[in-house]
Here is the input.
Amino acid sequence: MMRDLPPTATLRAFEVATRHTTFTAAAAELCITQSAVSHQLKNLEEIWGLPLFQRGKTLSLTPAGAALAPLVREFFSKLETTLADLREQKGRVRLRVNTTYSFALKWLLPRLPGLARLHPEILVTLESTDQAINFASTDADVAIRFGHGNYPALHTEFMFREQLFPVASPALLQRFGTPDEPAELLRYPLLTRDGADLVPKWDAWFKQVGVNTDVLHENVRFADTNMTIEAALLGQGIALARSGHVEKEIADGSLVRLFDLPFPSPAAYYFVCPQGIETQPHIVTFRSWLLAESQQAQLSYR
Here is the structure.
């Protein structure tokens, strides 16, 4: 079928002509003569054996032309985007980072502009999954994982450990009042993240602060950390949040931390990569930046 593929200039003439009502207007965009455009399009119709335009005072596409126009337009769009991306990468090194979606969204993404300013030579590609990392079956160069640091056969470095505390929206506190003691939370709607045994639930937090309870006034259970935080922002209840996931919300006042009681997360974040590649220059640069950011975060989480 390669005989059906016309020269790129002919395809470009077709793509431009589909966006104009006359060959003259298409010729002006292409900086060629009107007769050259007309000749290229007639040649294309002969190659494909299909009428592409209905010619008259103005141009209009035939059904075949209308079916082919978006395909040709997408071809040029993807070609231009890919070329621009390749030119941008020239002289830069790509680093593929695998982490969990919630961590990427809430902690890593807000900090990446700082990395770009300091090290524009590193082009980070983020991929997210909550599954255990297997470098043999992924394109990732490095990963950030939440756990207890047990990652056999991988280079592993501790990043930081979060604190857990209740958070609520100002609107919810206006409706229910601000609690003075942890036990008062038992009368509030509590938002719970389901699953993920690495993250303590409300019963563990109440036990930590000395409140005995058998029944919790749970509102909704969520399968995702971000959904839990979003529900708290909407005033649907009080969430038990990890400090790294609510930095922005606490800072801008859209969520309020309740009680300054220490409850360090039993799990922490770790930088991991295959043994040996941690000494590659661009990975050393990223790792150093990441650990410096982690150290600052850890100080603020105490």
